[in-house]
Each structure stands twice: as structure tokens, then as C-alpha cells.
What we know:
The complex is a heterodimer. Chain A has helices at residues 2-22, 27-30, 32-51, 75-98, 105-124, 128-146, 153-184, 189-194, 196-201, 205-219, 228-231, 237-246, 251-258, 260-263, 267-288, 294-315, 318-349, 365-379, 385-399, 404-427, 446-464, 470-481, 497-514, 516-522, 525-529, 534-556, 561-582, 597-612, 619-639, 643-664, 676-702, 710-721, 726-734, 736-758, 761-764, 771-782, and strands at residues 55-62, 67-73.
Amino acid sequence: MLVIILSGFIFAALIPWLYRRFGPRSGWLFALLPLSWLVYLAGQAPFILGQGQVIEERISWMPSLGVELAFRLDGLGMLFALLITGIGALVIIYGGGYLDGHPYQGRFFVLITLFMVAMLGVVLSDHLFLLFIFWELTSITSFLLIGFEHQRYGARAAAWQALLVTAGGGLALLAGLVLLSQVAGSGLISVINQNGAVVRNSPLYPMVLLLILIGAFTKSAQFPFHFWLPNAMAAPTPVSAYLHSATMVKAGVFLLARLTPVLAETPLWQMLVSGVGFLTLLTGALLALGQRDLKRLLAYTTVGALGTMTFLLGLSDALAVKAAVLYILAHGLYKGALFLVAGAVDHSTGTRDIERLGNLASTVPQVALAALLAGISMAGLPPALGFLAKELFFESLMESTWPLYLSLGGAILAGAINFVVAALVAFKPFWGRAQDVPHPPHPVSVEFWLGPLILSGLGLVVGVIPALTIPLIQGAAQSVLQFPLKVKLALWHGMTPVLGLSLLTMGLGGLGWAIYRSLWQGGRIWQKLAPVGPAHLYEVGLTGLRRFAAWQTRVLQNGYLRFYVMTIVLTTVLLTGFTLLSRLSWLGVGGWGSIRFYEVVVVALMIMAAVVIPRLRSRLATIATMGMIGYGLVLIYLIYSAPDLAMVQFAIETLTVILFVLAVYRLPKFTLLTPSPTRFLDLLVAIAGGMLMTALVLVVTARPMVPHISDYFAQNSLTLANGRNVVNVILVDFRGLDTLGEITVLALAGIGVYALVRLTLGRLMVHFEGLEEEEEVEHERAL
Amino acid sequence: MTLALALLIGVLFTIALYLMMRRNLVKVLIGLIILSNAINLFIFTLGRLVRGRPPLIPAGETALQPPYADPLPQALILTAIVISFGVTAFAIALMRQAYQVLGTSDLNELRDTDIQPRYHPDYHHAESEEEGH
């Protein structure tokens, strides 16, 4: 499995080069990678599913933190991995046609491959932190793919929203996973799953559960975080089909299933998970009313479907888990297909508005067929897989402890709306009267219908012959429940209450389809309710955050050097001064010590020079006075046993003065810029800083010298490095690498000076007409 | 003498900080140079003052005999002097260039990254076009 992950990353790195070589049709080539994984996984299937075995791989990664590259392929991982690689291959082929001629097509292939690897990593990881890393990688690739057409403001905003919601949840998840590994005493999921009772009895359990649920719910667009998913439809359609319907949004559901053995079967789990799932199920269904865009319709029903899965996992008995697993498979097949159909329709006609579409079956017959097959499954009609999934869903509702009128009522309502949406998406665009579309419908190439046809065909085939899928469902359900069980699936159960419920749903759905226009009129109420929805809350929060950031940037990063210097000086004076004063007891000041006449003269001259400088009006005089300070320093170094310093200081001071004098006539004259009260304030701050330094010198020198590393240099300079000048030996021998770094810095400064002197900025300036106006408009919109 | 040097360090820091709070680029630069001198002197003084005992091993001996001036701060300061010269040279060149291209040395006018060039020898034609506004 490590080979799968690594080969994926390596392949993704090669894609730009391959794409340049083989051009837009290279989708077929890139699909070979997931196909080969699919073949490998299918080869393991008898072993994993038939015998209930697992494949494990473990490589030590960060032993000090107990993090391992631990992979584990079990039934649940198998189900997801097959979905990811299978749909992934079809989506990549589809992308070759859908994005043909798009300037970023190569980028699409890279990102979608990276995402696929990350998603496989999520479902194959056996370590909490490894899973988390891949989890976040999917969020990042999702962000990049939603913002694929980054020139559009809407795409960028949607990408931000998706990232902020899912990565925000990811932070909670990280905290939850850390806690969980602490409580369980291991990061390995397979180990933790054996010790479920320990975790459930821990006082930290509610905290662990809540944090992990926030992560799972944001990722899987559960209420109240559902709003990012419909907005993520700004991504290209193959991305929506793959990430935002078939795979990534199911990562949250996957996590719930994965951690069911350790976290489930408590009242808290059942209440939170099925409660939120049920709310989401209703939210998704009801919000779909009134939508006219094919993709948004599909997005809201995806939210509803994710709610259904979460709801079922919340019930967490054997029947419900079976239903959830079956629902995951069925939904992946039909919803993936329908998204791809929507993309093909969009490509063919230039619109996704259901009111403007009709009679496309004659132009794109294969797409129409795929839509029909997938639509049957989505509507929950026999003999498709969707029908089986819905039957099982009803069955587990009948056995749950929930009040029947509530759970069944909600499920039937959602099922009926699903039916109507299926008809609108899969039926209406292809039959009936032709409508006005932006450009005359044109036939589409094989890339467009191959994927949907395979997916929807599979949904039908396994519906008719459920035996094909039983091992998969059984294997996945077993690894969720961790005990062996038998799965039986059949289209015909006999005359049961469940069949009656199915018929009722279909009847209601048919009725809804007949009057869908008035229903959709009613759906407009959502626009009126928008100001109280969670999406609005997000907007308000984000705007507030931006305002706050802008405010604190304006205040703290205001661009005035004076303000920065003042802040630094005052902070230092306050903090250091406070420490000095609070430990006044050990303060002591050394005496004058011995002082000689010529020393007094040097120091006095330097102080005089320093005091005079701010008052000088002539630039040349200022530089000369500055030189006085520098040369004074030379004398001090000379008196106090530092001949090397004196020499260097002398040379450098001379160079600086010469450089200044050479440049001085190109420099501006001094003018009085600041009013005197401000200057007085500045002087006070500066004096505070100066006094602090004086105090520091006195305090430190009053204390005895601490023995330190200088002794080593003094003893070993000659014996080890054959040099009698200890300072030189330190620089070129003991700390030779530091000096090399210093030389590098000097060389860089030299190059910088040369570039600055030679640079003629005027020639390089490019003036963009109208750019500023555009930026302003964008800026206003962002605020 | 330490007291005198402590006083000198205080004065140098005061003047350097005051100059760095000015709006004129040249003054800020001079402040920067004085500041680096002040810091060097600060480190030097903290390394304790020793007269007439440079850290040189006399001929015939294999190691320094105390008392000697601490070689470590000296090595540090030596590096610091050279580096600060690099910074100064770069700053002078940058300042000269900024003044020529932007026509101002008032830091308050240099707060924005989108400031428009006002004067440059190689920029005449563009300038004459822009004279309209």
C-alpha cells in the first residue's frame, strides 16, 4: 500500500511533463494509474472479502512520537478504495474531454491525481495521525480544485469557504485524535478499535467524541456545516462528481464508520450522530426545492444522502450499518454518474438550468441512457441498487428506537423529494420539448458518456444480481461492526411493510413530479430565510474577522518607522525595566574604577559629537561628526586591549565616511519635517531607551564575571590551531564556518549594492491600464 | 571608567534611537550606524575592561596567562563591525536609488508599495506623458 501512495505522488510529479508530451488526450494515459490500482485491489478482494483477512504494512516513521506509516486494507477500506480508484479512473478520462482546450487542464490532472492518492491514504491508514495528514491533504487539494478557475471571484470565495469550514473542523479533529490516542494509549486504529471499552469509560470520552464529530461533520457537510458543499459546485464538474459527491465528502462518513467500534454504542453517540444525520437528511432534501441548476440540485441531494449515511451510522446496529454501507456504494455509483451527466449536458448546450433544457436524447443518446439508468437508482426504483439501499434504509428505521412517525416521515419526505430531483436531473433534460439553450446542442465525444454509462450500468447490474455486491457489503459491514455477519440482498422480499413504504415514497414522488413547478415556487422561501441560515453566520463571521485583521494591521503595521521604533523601545524598556526593578535587591553599581585623563577626553568628545548630531543642518558636517564617534571608538578599543578591533573599526569607519561623502550630493537636504512637541516626545522615548542601556551596563559589570568558554580558546589557541592571536584564531579556525557565513552575507550585500547602482527602474516599469480600478472593485466586493 | 563608558553608551543609544525616529531617510541611516557602534561598545564593555593585556599569546608561552582581555566579545564585535558595514553600504545605495526614483526621502511618503516614480534620468518619456495628471 505504501507502494500505491508513493507511486501516486511520483506519478503526479511526472504529469506536467507527460501532459506536455501527449497533449489533451493524455487523460486516457493518466487513467492507467488508478486502473492498475483497481486491478491490484480487485486481485486482493477474494482474500480480504472472502476470508475476512486484512493486509497490514508498517514502517517506522517518527518513533519518538510513536507515529508509524501504518497501512491496513480491510473490508471497509476495500469498499472505499474500489470506489476511489474506479470512479477516479473514469473521472480522469472524463476530464480529458471536459477540459479539452482549457489552459489549466494539466493542472487538473495533477491535482486530481494528488487528491486520489490523499483519499486512498485516508481510507488505507491505520494510524490516526497518518489518517489526519491525508485528511488535510484532501482538504487542500479540494481547495485548489474548487478554486480551479481562480480568476472568478465566486470560485475563490467558494474555495475559501470550503477550506475554512473543513480545515477548521480538521483542527477540532486533530485535537480529538490526539486525545483519543492519549486515552487509548496507542495511535494505531486497529489497536484502538480493540480497546473501545477503555475509551468509552474514560471521563474524556465526551470531549473526544465531540471533537472528532466536528471534524467528520464539517468534512461530510452535515448540518449546520452543509452550506459549503453546494457552493463548492464552482469547481469543474468532474471535480464535483469525484470530490464533492462520490469520495471526499464521504471521508467524514468513513471516519465515523472506522471509529464505530471504539466510539459508538453510547447514548451520546446515538443522539449526536443520528440526530445530526437526520437533520441533515431533511435539510438537504428541503433545500433542494427551488433549485434550478443541475449541479446545485445534485449537491443538495448529496447533502441529504450524506445525512442518511450519518443517520444510519448513528443507529449503529448491524442492520443500519449494512444499510449505510450499501447506501455509500449505491450513492457513489449513481451520484457520480449524474454529476458527469450534468457536465456533459452543460458542455453540449452551455446551460445547466433545468427550465431551459429538453429533448437532448436525440443529440446525446448515450448520455441520456446513462442519465436514465442512474436516475432510476437515485429515485429508488427497482431494479437498481438505489432501490435495495432504500429498502434496507426503511428496514433499519423500522427496527430503530426512534419514533416511527418521525423517522419514517422524514425518510419518506426526503425520498419523495429525491425522486422529484432524480426526474428533474435525469429525465427532464433529455425528453419532452426542446427549449432555448445558449448554443445549439452538439453531440459529445466518448469521454463524456463512457464514465456515466459504466457507473450507472454497474448500479443496475448489481441491483439485478445483488450477489455480485454481497461480499463487498458484507466485508465492509464486518469491519465496521467487528463481528462476522451474513448479508442477504434481494429485489423481492415479498409483501412486507417496507415494500409499502417504498410504494408510498414513489407515489408521493410521482405526485411531486406532477406538481413540481408549484413546489419549486414554494422553494423560494429559502431565499427569504437565508439571513438566518448558518451560511449567513459564516459570512458575518468572516467579514468580522477581515475587519478585525484590517483594523489591527492599520494600527500595528501602519508603515511609520517612528511608530515601530517607539513600540520596540517602549516594550523593551517596560519589560526589562520591570525585571530590573523587581529584583532590585541584587542590584549594585561598581565604582568609577580607575580613569585616566585622556580617557575622559575621548569619552567627552564622543558624547559632545553625539549630542550635536541631531542639531546639525549640514549633511557633510553630520557625516564628519559621525566619523568622530567612530574614531573615538577606535581609541577606546585601542586603550582596552583590542588592537584587532581598533584596526577594523578604523578601516570600516573610514570606508563608511568615504562612501557617505561620495553619495552625499545625491542625497536629499535636511528639512525640518516634524513639529517640536513630537520631537520632544521622541527624545523622551529615546532617553528612556538610553538610560536602560546605561543601567544594564552598570548592573552587569557590577557582578562578578562568570567563567565561560573564553578559557578554552585561551588555552588551546596555540596548541590546537597554531595561532598566537586568539581573536583571529577564533574567527578563522574555531568559528571558521561562521566567518564563511559572514563573508557570504558581505558578498550578497555587495551584489545588492551593485544591482541597486546599476538598476534603472524606469525601463522595467510596466504600467497596466485599468488594473487599479479592477483591484478596487475586487477589494470592495471582498469586504 | 566603566561608569563613563556606561554613560557614553546611554548617550549613543539615545541619539541613535532619536535619529531613527526621524522622517528623513539620511538621518535614519546615520542613526543606524551610531546604533551599531553603540551596540558594539555595549558588548565590549560587558566583556569587562582590561588595560594593556590584548589576547595575544607572547612568544615562548603556550597559552594566555590571566589577566587578559576576553577574546570572545572581540571576535563577536569584529564580525558585527564587518556585517554592519555591509548593511550600511547596502542602505546607502538603496537610499540613493530610492531618492532618485521616487523623488522623496520622507519616510511618511514611502509607506505604500504602490508609490509612483516621480523622477528618474531614464524615465523622461513616461514622465512627460504623465504630466497631464
